[in-house]
Structures are given as structure tokens and as C-alpha cells.
Specification:
single chain; alpha+beta; three-stranded antiparallel sheet; 3 strands; about 20% helix
Length: about 70
């Protein structure tokens, strides 16, 4: 994976999951998007989730069923 592709994945994951992701270069030289970087990798970028995002799950009214 390229560094640009790893950054793209990290951004998408940070936005979708609401948590910080890191773009790292592994000891073997691979570029990865990770949630928890290991001690033996180089952190190239930190991608935080958007500020202002409501942390609660969003449900559409028609998708929530009332308990019987």
C-alpha cells in the first residue's frame, strides 16, 4: 500500500469510527493505517476524527423498532 492510500484509509476510518488512526511505516517498510501503533514503527501522520461530531450513534426513526 502506498503512503497516500494508507492516509486515505486512516482518514476514512477516523471519520467512520470517531477515533484517532495513525499512518505508520512498519519495520519492513510497509505503509499502514492503524489504531494502535507498535513500538517498532515510524508514525508518519496522526488522523483525528472530525471535531464537532456527535459521538452517539445516529438512528433513523423508521429503522428503530419499538419493543413489544
Amino acid at each position: 500500500m502506498t503512503k497516500e492510500r494508507a492516509r486515505h484509509y486512516a482518514k476514512a476510518l477516523a471519520q467512520g469510527m470517531g477515533i484517532t488512526f495513525y499512518v505508520v511505516r512498519s519495520r519492513e517498510g510497509r505503509f499502514l493505517a492503524v489504531q494502535i501503533p507498535s513500538d517498532d514503527c515510524e508514525i508518519l501522520a496522526t488522523i483525528a476524527p472530525p471535531s464537532g461530531r456527535d459521538k452517539r450513534p445516529q438512528f433513523r426513526r423508521e429503522h428503530v423498532r419499538k419493543a413489544a
